[in-house]
Write a structure and sequence with these properties.
This protein has 188 residues and is α+β, with helices and mostly antiparallel strands. The radius of gyration is 19 Å and the shape is globular.
Length: 188
């Protein structure tokens, strides 16, 4: 369970910061808006637990359900999937904002670099490496699909190669960033 919690922290911890007065601040919209002051440690931990549960439900129910309902006969079949993904993303952002409904708005904004650094630290070397290996495996599946699938399904292979190739580039950036963060402990 500790591993699952650590994986979920990749999405959760970048949303929390400590302001100059030492208070915890929650950023439901991430870097796009000001945060909300959490009045005490109990509220902060409760918010983190709620977010972990939200992400766990999303990963264990939402994604498998979307995969099962996705026919993927041709590229046009992706349009409802993209629309549903956008709706779910907006719903989650709305849910995060609703969680902050009774909290005092902070003037503090979350700098992009700080959010990226928090996410990089939360992933850690093991997490980044595991996701890089998974991306390589899924890219290999894309190559296999390109080679073996019929003409009408080759686009799936190209999509896998493109999407997980991009993931690999982003993960390589995080790996390099983590090396820099570890080399400069004063910046932590």
């Amino acid at each position: 369970m500790r591993t699952v919690s650590r994986l979920l922290d990749i999405f959760i911890e970048p949303l929390f910061r400590t302001d100059p007065e030492g208070r915890q601040v929650f950023f439901p919209w991430g870097v796009w808006a000001a945060g909300y002051v959490l009045p005490d440690a109990v509220t902060a931990e409760s918010m983190r637990r709620t977010l972990r549960t939200t992400w766990l439900v999303f990963f264990l129910v939402g994604i498998p359900l979307a995969i099962l309902l996705m026919p993927l006969r041709d590229p046009v079949d992706l349009l409802p999937v993209i629309a549903a993904s956008a709706i779910v993303s907006l719903a989650m952002l709305g849910w995060f904002r609703w969680l902050a409904r009774d909290l005092q708005r902070s003037s503090m904004k979350l700098p992009l670099r700080e959010a990226q650094d928090a996410q990089t630290r939360a992933m850690g070397r093991t997490g980044i490496l595991a996701m890089m290996v998974l991306s390589l495996i899924l890219m290999a599946l894309g190559v296999a699909t390109l080679v073996t699938a019929g003409h009408d399904r080759r686009w799936i292979g190209g999509l896998l190669i493109g999407m997980f190739g991009l993931c690999l580039v982003v993960l390589a950036w995080h790996w390099r960033r983590l090396s820099r963060l570890e080399a400069a402990p004063g910046r932590s």
